[in-house]
Structure to design on (676 residues):
C-alpha cells in the first residue's frame, strides 16, 4: 500500500495544481478565442483566415509559457516530502521499519510524482483541445501533443531536482525555497552562457517554434528531451544513493 | 524449535563524531523470553535498537536478529517481516485515519491476526474514521501498540512503550506483553518504568554510556543482590570487605553498608570474623540495582 | 484462586508462586485433583511473565505436587509424600508460633522479629553453624 500512502501524501497538492492548470488554460484559451471569434461560437467562417490562424497558434504558444511556469511550480512541490522530511516529522521510524527496501520507497514516491506530472501536463492541453474543437477552430492534435511532450519530456528534470533537494534538506519551507531557487538560477545561468542547452527554452517550445507561423516544428528536439530525461535519471539515482547511505 | 538467541551483537558500536553512543556491545537476548533493556536517557538504548532494525549503520561490530545479519540490507529486510517494532515516538501518519493506518500496516505482514485486530480496536475504543493528527496522545499510543499486538511476530521490540500511558493503559500494555509471550513471541523492550519491568521481565540488560553493565535473569538478580548493613565495635577497615561480588562500600563511623551483586554470604562471614555487633541482610529491589549500577560507573 | 506476587522482595516470583500453591494445598483451598489455571491465563491475570508461571509449575511437577497433562493443564496430585510434608509444615508453624510469642514477651517488636528471620534465611545455615 505504498502507492496509497504516496497518493494520500500528494493528493491535495496534485488536485489543486490540476484544477488550477485546467481552469487557467480553459479560461485563457476560451476567452481569447471568444473575443477573436467576434463573441460567437462556433467561430464564424469569415474569421478563420490565414492571418487569424497564426494568431491562434501564437495563442497556444503563449498558453504554453504560462503552463510551463505553473507546471514547474506544481512538480517541484510534488517532489517535496520523502524520508528526510519524514524524519523531521517523526514518522520515518514507521516507514523505514516496514519490510520494504529504501530504494523501493524512493521509487514508488518518484513514480507517483512522474505519473502526476504527466497528468498535469496532458490534461490541461486536453482541455484546450476540447474547447477549441467546440469552437470549431481547426486545432492540430499534433501541435497539442507536441506542447505536452516538450513540457513533460523536458520538464521532468525539474521534478527530479526537487526530489534530490528534498533528500538533502528536511525543512518544510527551506526545501521548496531551495528548489525554486535552483530553477531560477538555472534559467538565468543557461540564458546567459549556454542558451542552446537551456531547458526552459526547450519546455516552452522556444527552441522549436517557427517565428512566422508560430507552429512547433515537426522535428522535435528529441536529443534535448533525451538529455534532459537522462539528467533527471541521474538526479534520481543520486537521491536514492543519499537515502541508502544515510542514518535515520 | 530452536533455542538460539533472537538477538546477538558482537562488539556493536556507534559514534557520532567524537561522541560514543554505543561501545563494544555484546548482547544476547534469549528466545521466548521477556527481556528488558534498562538505562538512563542517552545511554544508547534507542541507538542500539535502531542499529538492529537497519535505521542506523553501526560504526563497528556486527549483529544478528532472528539469525539475519543486521548490516546486510536484504537480510535485515527479511528479518523485519517477522519483527514488530513500536518506536519511542509512536510514529504514525497524521494524514491517515485510524482505519487507513490499520489497513496500511496490515498489508505488509503475513502474521497479521484479523480477529485480534478487531478485538483490540473494540477494546481501545479508537474512532475508526478520525484522522490520526486529531487523536489525543494516549489514543495515538494505543493505536501504535495495536499495530504491533495485532500481529504474531517472532520478535517484538518496544522502545519505551509505557511512555504516554496512564496506569490503566500500562496494565493493559503489560497484559498484552504477557499474552504475546505466552504465545511464543520473544519480547525485547526498553523502559524507564522499573516497577513494570520488575513484574513482567524474565531478563534484564542494563546499559550505561553505551556499555552493557548488567546482563542477568531477574531471578538471578533477586537471589544474589543483597545489601548488608553492619555495626562494629570500632570503625571497620574497608579493605577487608573488598571481596568478589562487592560493588560498593559505605562507612559512617562504626557502621558499614555493603552493596553486593553476589557472594553476600562471604561478606557476612567476614563481618562475623570482625566481631560485628549487628548484621542485617536485605534484598535489593531492581530500582536500587539500577541506581547503584549506573552510579558506580 | 487468589495469588499475589510481590516483585520487590528478594524472592524470585516463581518461588513465591510455588510457596503460595503449596500453602493452598496445605490449607485445603486446592484439593487433590483440582485444576490450576493455564499458564497463559494466570500470567495475564497476575500480569507477570508466563515463564515465571511455567517455571513454578515445572518445579512443582518435579516435587510431585502437580501433574502437567499435555493439552489439559496443571492438576494437583497430593501424594503421600507431600501429605507428609504438609503435616510437618503444620508442626513447624506451631513451633514458630510459640517462638514468636516468646520473643514478643521478651520485648521484641514484630518488625525486628521479621528482620531477624529474614536475615537468618538469606544465607546458608553453614555460616551459622561455623560460629
Amino acid at each position: 500500500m505504498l502507492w496509497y500512502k504516496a497518493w494520500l501524501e500528494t493528493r491535495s497538492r496534485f488536485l489543486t495544481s490540476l484544477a488550477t492548470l485546467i481552469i487557467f488554460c480553459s479560461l485563457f484559451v476560451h476567452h481569447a478565442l471568444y473575443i477573436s471569434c467576434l463573441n460567437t461560437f462556433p467561430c464564424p467562417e469569415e474569421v478563420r483566415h490565414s492571418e487569424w490562424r497564426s494568431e491562434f497558434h501564437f495563442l497556444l504558444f503563449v498558453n504554453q509559457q504560462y503552463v510551463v511556469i505553473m507546471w514547474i511550480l506544481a512538480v517541484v512541490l510534488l517532489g517535496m516530502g520523502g524520508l528526510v522530511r519524514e524524519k523531521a516529522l517523526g514518522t520515518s521510524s514507521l516507514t523505514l521499519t516496514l519490510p520494504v527496501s529504501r530504494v523501493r520507497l524512493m521509487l514508488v514516491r518518484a513514480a507517483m510524482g512522474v505519473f502526476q506530472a504527466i497528468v498535469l501536463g496532458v490534461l490541461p492541453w486536453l482541455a484546450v483541445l476540447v474547447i477549441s474543437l467546440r469552437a470549431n477552430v481547426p486545432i492540430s492534435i499534433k501541435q497539442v501533443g507536441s506542447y505536452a511532450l516538450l513540457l513533460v519530456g523536458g520538464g521532468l528534470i525539474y521534478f527530479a531536482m526537487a526530489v534530490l533537494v528534498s533528500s538533502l534538506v528536511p525543512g518544510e519551507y527551506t526545501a521548496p525555497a531551495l528548489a525554486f531557487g535552483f530553477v531560477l538560477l538555472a534559467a538565468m545561468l543557461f540564458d546567459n552562457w549556454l542558451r542552446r542547452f537551456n531547458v526552459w527554452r526547450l519546455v516552452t517550445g522556444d527552441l522549436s517554434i517557427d517565428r512566422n507561423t508560430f507552429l512547433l516544428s515537426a522535428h522535435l528536439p528529441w536529443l534535448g528531451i533525451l538529455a534532459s530525461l537522462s539528467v533527471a535519471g541521474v538526479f534520481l539515482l543520486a537521491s536514492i544513493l543519499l537515502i541508502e547511505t544515510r542514518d535515520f | 524449535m530452536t533455542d538460539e538467541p533472537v538477538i546477538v551483537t558482537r562488539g556493536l558500536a556507534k559514534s557520532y563524531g567524537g561522541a560514543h553512543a554505543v561501545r563494544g556491545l555484546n548482547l544476547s537476548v534469549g528466545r521466548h523470553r521477556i527481556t528488558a533493556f534498562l538505562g538512563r536517557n542517552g545511554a544508547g538504548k534507542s541507538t542500539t535498537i535502531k542499529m538492529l532494525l537497519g535505521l542506523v549503520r553501526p560504526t563497528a561490530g556486527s549483529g544478528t536478529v532472528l539469525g539475519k545479519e543486521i548490516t546486510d540490507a536484504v537480510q535485515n529486510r527479511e528479518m523485519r517481516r517477522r519483527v514488530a517494532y513500536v518506536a519511542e515516538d509512536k510514529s504514525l501518519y497524521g494524514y491517515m485515519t485510524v482505519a487507513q493506518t490499520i489497513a496500511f500496516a496490515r498489508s505488509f505482514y503475513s502474521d497479521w491476526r484479523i480477529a485480534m485486530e478487531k478485538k483490540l480496536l473494540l477494546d481501545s475504543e479508537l474512532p475508526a474514521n478520525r484522522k490520526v493528527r486529531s487523536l489525543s496522545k494516549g489514543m495515538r499510543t494505543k493505536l501504535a501498540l495495536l499495530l504491533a499486538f495485532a500481529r504474531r511476530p517472532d520478535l517484538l521490540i518496544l522502545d519505551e512503550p509505557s511512555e504516554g500511558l496512564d496506569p490503566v493503559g500500562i496494565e493493559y500494555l503489560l497484559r498484552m506483553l504477557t499474552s504475546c509471550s505466552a504465545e511464543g513471541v520473544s519480547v525485547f523492550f526498553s523502559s524507564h518504568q522499573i516497577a513494570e519491568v520488575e513484574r513482567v521481565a524474565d531478563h534484564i540488560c542494563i546499559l550505561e554510556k553505551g556499555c552493557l553493565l548488567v546482563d542477568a535473569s531477574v531471578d538471578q538478580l533477586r537471589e544474589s543482590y543483597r545489601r548488608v548493613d553492619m555495626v562494629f565495635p570500632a570503625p571497620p577497615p574497608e579493605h577487608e570487605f573488598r571481596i568478589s561480588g562487592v560493588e560498593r562500600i559505605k562507612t559512617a563511623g562504626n557502621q558499614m553498608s555493603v552493596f553486593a551483586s553476589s557472594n553476600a554470604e562471604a561478606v557476612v562471614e567476614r563481618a562475623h570474623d570482625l566481631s560485628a555487633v549487628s548484621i542485617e541482610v536485605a534484598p535489593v529491589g531492581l530500582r536500587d540495582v539500577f541506581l547503584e549500577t549506573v552510579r558506580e560507573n | 484462586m487468589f495469588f499475589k506476587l510481590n516483585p520487590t522482595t528478594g524472592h524470585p516470583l516463581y518461588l513465591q508462586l510455588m510457596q503460595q500453591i503449596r500453602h493452598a494445598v496445605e490449607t485445603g483451598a486446592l484439593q487433590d485433583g483440582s485444576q490450576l489455571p493455564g499458564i497463559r491465563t494466570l500470567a495475564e491475570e497476575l500480569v507477570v511473565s508466563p515463564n515465571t508461571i511455567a517455571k513454578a509449575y515445572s518445579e512443582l511437577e518435579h516435587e510431585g505436587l502437580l501433574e502437567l497433562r499435555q493439552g489439559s493443564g496443571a492438576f494437583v496430585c497430593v501424594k503421600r509424600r507431600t501429605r507428609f510434608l504438609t503435616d510437618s509444615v503444620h508442626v513447624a508453624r506451631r513451633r514458630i508460633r510459640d517462638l514468636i510469642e516468646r520473643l514478643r514477651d521478651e520485648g521484641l517488636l514484630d518488625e525486628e522479629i521479621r528482620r531477624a528471620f529474614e536475615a537468618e534465611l538469606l544465607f546458608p545455615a553453614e555460616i551459622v553453624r561455623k560460629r
Remarks:
- The first helix of chain B runs from residue 45 to 52.
- The first strand of chain B starts at residue 7 and ends at 16.
- The domain at 7-220 of chain B is CATH 3.40.50.300 (Rossmann fold).
